[in-house]
Amino acid sequence: MFLRLVLIGLVLFTSTGLAQSLPRVYIESAQSGDEKDRNWKKGGAVKQVDFGSAIAAALAKKKVPVTVVTDKTKSQWTIKAVSSQREDSTVTKVAKIALIGVFASGTFTKFEGTFQVIDNESSAVTFAYNVKKNNFQSAAEAFAKHFKKDLKKKRRRRN
User: Fold this and answer.
1) Exposure class string for 78-114: b at 16+ Cβ within 10 A, else e
2) Domain spans, the chain
């Protein structure tokens, strides 16, 4: 029993220490609406997506070596993301189905995301990425994948 408690404590201590040694990032996301959407122009409802949560989940899923924090003052980097989502008009949907068939059913929505990773101390943009996908989750995962690749490349250069 004692050995089990020691092992659990060691795992918790090690994971906490590891999390503290990784760069700390704060996610700041904003969503813009579709300019063609009448509701957006009138200040009405647009499909809202918590893109910040999607980015945090994608960073974890892709095992990007960073720690996401919720307090901007405790972060070393800020990930700024702006996104927009546009759904095809009914006419366009019908045309896609007529031309492409049932395979077009999943391609009615277009999602765009623009990302900047900013060093909080120097305010330098250390990484930037723009993506167009069919949904916000795919966009967030594409960013995480490329951000991880960029981090690894920069670490190799330093060593």
Assistant:
1) bbbbbbbbbeeeeeeeeebeeeeeeebeeebeebbbb
2) 23-158
Query: Which residues fall within 8 angstroms of residue 96, CB to CB, at 6 or more apart?
Result: 88, 104, 107, 108
* Tens-digit pLDDT profile for residues 101-136: 655 555 667 788 899 999 999 999 999 999 998 888
User: CB 136: neighbour CB atoms within 10 A?
Assistant: 23
Q: Are 154 and 75 in contact (CB under 8 A)?
A: no
Name the CATH architecture for the domain at 23-158: 2-Layer Sandwich (3.30)
